[in-house]
Amino acid sequence: MEYEKCYVFKPEDSRPVKRRKVEPQGLQSSWNLRKEAYQEAWKAQQDRIDERLRTINATTINGILDFLEEAASNATEIRIPTGLILAGPNSALRTSIAAQISSHSDTTRRRSYIQISSSSGSNLKSLLKTIIQKATSRAVEDDEDELDDQPASRKGGPKLLNYDLELLHLHVQERRIEQVVIAIEDPEACDGELLSELIELFSYWQDRIPFVLFFNIATSVEFLQQRLSKTAIKHLDGRVFDAAVSSDEVEQVFDALTTSDTSLWIGSNLSTMILDRQSDYIQGIESLVQAARYAYMSHFYANAVSISLSPSLALKDVTAQYLEALRNLPSFRTFARQLLDNGDPGRLRDLLDRDDKAFEFAQNSVREGKEALAEILEATEVVRSLQITIPNTTASSKSRMYVQAMSGKLAGSPMLRTLLLTLRKAPSDTAINVANALLERKTPRDLIDELSPIVREIEALIKDQDDKAQPLRSEEDVKNSTLRTTVIAQKVELSKQKSALSKQDAAYTTIIRRLSDVLETYFAEKLVNPKDLTLHEIFLYDLKSPFREVFTPRPRHAVERALAAPHDYLDCDCCGPDHGDGDDATLASTQPSTAVLYQLYLESGNMINASDLWQAFQAVVGDSQDEQQVMAQFQRGLAEMRYLGFVKNTRKRVDHVAKVAWRGL
Amino acid sequence: MPKRRKTEEDVEDEDPTPRKTRRSAKDDERPSSPAQTPSSRKSILKNTPTKGGLLRSVEATPSSLRKVLFSTPNDRKDVVEEDNEETPTNTRNDRSARRKSQRTLQKQIAETEDSDEEQDERDEAIAQAILGDDEDEEVEDAMDVDPPSAPDTPSKTGRPRGRPKGKRRERTPSPPPDLPPHELYFFQNRAGANKTSSNTLPSHLLLNHEDYFAQMKDYKDPHEPDMARLKQLHKRSFDQWIFELEEGFNLCLYGYGSKRNLIMDFAKHFYVHSEKPPQVVIVNGYAPGLTIRDVLTTLASVILPKNSKLPAQPNALLDLLKTSISTPVILMIHSLDHPNLRKAQAQSILASLASHPKVSLLASCDTPNFPLLWDISLSSQFNFLYHDTTTFDPYTAEIEVVQDVNALLGRSRRTLGGKDGVGYVLKSLPENARNLFRILVAEQLALAVDGEEGFGIAMDSDAEDEGILGVENEDDIGMEQDTPSRRKKGGGRPPKKKKEPAPKPVHAPAVGVEYRTLYHKAVEEFVCSSEVNFRTLLKEFHDHQMIESRKDALGTERLLVPFRREELEAILEELV
């Protein structure tokens, strides 16, 4: 079978293989349960993401639909109505707007949607052919009982060529189609002249076929305009739609991923990696979703205790190994230590000895942990709302805030400290804004309860204020102190002097201090390090490892390493690095022949004399062996090097090969 | 490093201009006194305001600059290339385009007068001073690596700053540490820095198919248990792969070693362990002549009802397939990055297939740079999860070892298919034809022997080849362009045997057998009765490219069998 081109796989023995249903042993036995849990968890997540994505460019789509409607109702017959959709540079990765429109459109009007791209045809003929084919074939699918062959050929007339727009015309007439919408997916990649010709041709048919054009523009309208001929542009009646969403899209999806009812939380390291990858390379939003999905998959697949995330888990479902694993979790150990320190060995004994207690404990910890995480998330929102309302501070993005919070560094971060300091200095109008913004959030309950009296006090103060034109000032505001320079004994002394504060200002100062204290204690309390939560291993996933290897592989490095240091992979006794004294450049006769050749190859310049290479190879591998045998190895190695694309033949010199790949680039 | 930089700067301050001389001086100095301190070297520099003398002494011995490749094995076994080992140093040319243009400019001035080097040097120094290429000198310095044999102390590397122009420089096999990738490339790719010997690989050393496979059959890899362990490691992730495939990802396996067996094992595993085995379509991407159409038709045989009419265009077929897939299909492609499938169209079709929710793709990639095949939209369509599955398995199915090596070394592919191929063809031909071929080969051999004796040229087996084939004109080489013409151009014969520069144009031994002579011989031996008959037989040979015909200087037609002598002898042996 190995020399056939392609075939359908059938297991070798035709006799049905005795289905050796290997029951997974140990922890892996709960895999089916975990799989279900995964499916449940991810489905909820996926739904949330889909929901977000659907709403993201709903306005643009509605705008475009209105435009279509308008074009249909007052057809001009002179110029082709054209939608210029600015889709941004990563438009190729998303389902195009045009496709979304065709799926959104209502059925009141009969429209025919045709999407073409630069690959649809390289000349006018083939492009027209594709367009006509797409337009007519779609209709055939709709109602198949019609004439299946050439439905639009004129009765009696000569058979039309398959690129004649007359065909489309007939089709339009036959179906009473009101609009033929042609979406050009990548006008940048199309030949400008071809596009111009196409537009001109369409305009000649505009009186018979009601065309509407859509350009999915990745660069700019000006660029498109430059590429089109003047006559073509004259025939267009364009309108621009902005559909560019990129960073905002990422934020939205990430936000959907980290809502408070998430079952699995993604830790800071992994989120940083995912987000970095997203911004470093232009990736479609899909790649972010897939990355998150893979994180879920890895967690549920490889972590046996993840079973606790299943909401319907009962004690009878779990095995003894599971509980044992649970009791060995590092965070459980810390918890046990705490129990002992607190002098509660009885509870610890219960957890260790009684399965039901342990199980219950796990379920509770998971629930509490998730609540704590939700509170962290809420706290970040509070921070953000402070940032928004306090002037002269920039609001960090949600995702960045999330990453910071998950790393447990937000609580003592300089950013937060400055924020609270600024608040202390803020005059009363700002303070009232801030407080009201927090109150409007309605959550979290306890914070609101503490805030509302403060707000009332401030309001009362403002009401009693003498001078309504000036807001109340805080004592700590720099504007309230003046710098005074005095020269004493030829030294300049700087001294701060607090300007006299009115009584109301003093009262306000105490209140604003209280406000900031309340917030500070709130943050300190809520913004805990997620990794300090008990049993965080269950609901928090923060491993870089499979993500990095699986999404950003380094194949070149892998091949080079395999060849330069085969011991790393083979772990054999014979070619370990201790044979030489270097770390990687150890040639050993025991290494696979290709590896030996590769290392010799690394030493060479860009031309390699095959004869010398052979002699060197022979010298390394050893003359003790039969020359023919060594030659066979040599040939195999050389052929593999060629196959892997390290060498190619050269005509410059006899019996030389050219080096084409350099290491470590 | 900082220390070194400092010393450099010191030197710079003292003596701003003649940079290269310093280098040359130092280079000359080095072998004798390897442990010089920077200060002492500085004094040398001051003492050599006239660079000419030193320079010339360097320039005068170009032979010693020969580079020995593969010095490591050389150290162990002295058998390799004894004649090339005097000095491991080497001229190192400049690499930057600007310097190159400078050099060409200077060359124009200095071309006629070789002794004008001083002038040349000065020009260059001035140009350099003007251009003030300080910034790239830093990199230069970083690349100035000391000979590996005598690792220097940092103090010692405090060499005068500046780039030695066209001076000797150590060529080290291992680059200095911490070079940025692009510099690493230029380091590894220094032009002109490597002189290779002109030895040729004696052709009898290369194994032909039979011998190769015989040897391979006998060979037992000492690493077999390790490879098995490695494979077992990969096998443990089979269940994980199934899960990933189920979740709509596609898998891409990379790493050194053939992944064919692993994938086939996975296919079996998958088949056994899934409740309802899906259709599994295997594509051998390496199979010669595979086209994307083959893949699509095989898929169609699974997806579409039998005897359905398939569209001719791959894209149309793809559309049809994508609309009609109803049951899950797993597509396993060995060597997705094989040249067969490297065309943009093939990759985009496969990506489009892979993005279909009912199609799962498991592909293996062999080359190290395969991700370059896919632009962002393709790779997002593929939606690959990558797994490193280095197996160290030999690429037995993927590579035609003997053929590839021959192609790599520029030996005619036919030569190898040659002897065996000729055997097959002859077997299928009538007795007469075989006899005619035997006569031709015998005559050709006889002529070659005559030629040797007649002209008294001692030829080794390779030169022999030239004796038979090498005289042909470039114009009429036709199919045979690989070997002979190369031979001629390559020029450099190994100096191992005494060899007179044979005045070929005059005394060229007759190439091939004269047409008339062969005809007469054939008639004599009752191989054919008429010229028409004779021509028919020859045509058969010609069609199989077993003979070539060409005109010699006098315009007489000559026929020859385009093989090396030993192969001719082997053929003759088989025929008699």
TrEMBL record, chain A:
Cell location: Nucleus
Domain Origin recognition complex subunit 3 winged helix C-terminal: 556-625
Residues covered by the Origin recognition complex subunit 3 N-terminal domain: 5-307
Keyword set includes RNA-binding: no
Keyword DNA-binding on entry: yes
Domain of life: Eukaryota
Coiled coil: none
Keywords attached to this entry: DNA replication, DNA-binding, Nucleus
Family (UniProt): Belongs to the ORC3 family.
Name of the protein: Origin recognition complex subunit 3
Organism this protein belongs to: Zasmidium cellare
Taxonomic lineage: Eukaryota, Fungi, Dikarya, Ascomycota, Pezizomycotina
Automatic annotation (TrEMBL), chain B:
Annotated region described as Disordered, given as residue ranges: 1-183, 471-507
Compositional bias of kind Polar residues: 33-50
Record key words, sorted: DNA replication, Nucleus
Ranges of biased composition (kind: Acidic residues): 111-123, 132-144
Biased composition regions of type Basic residues, renumbered to the chain: 158-170, 486-499
Protein localization: Nucleus
Origin recognition complex subunit 2 winged-helix domain sequence ranges: 508-567
Domain Origin recognition complex subunit 2 RecA-like: 227-389
Its biological purpose: Component of the origin recognition complex (ORC) that binds origins of replication. DNA-binding is ATP-dependent. ORC is required to assemble the pre-replication complex necessary to initiate DNA replication.
Subunit structure: Component of the origin recognition complex (ORC).
Protein family membership: Belongs to the ORC2 family.
Name used for this protein in its record: Origin recognition complex subunit 2
Organism: Zasmidium cellare (Wine cellar mold)
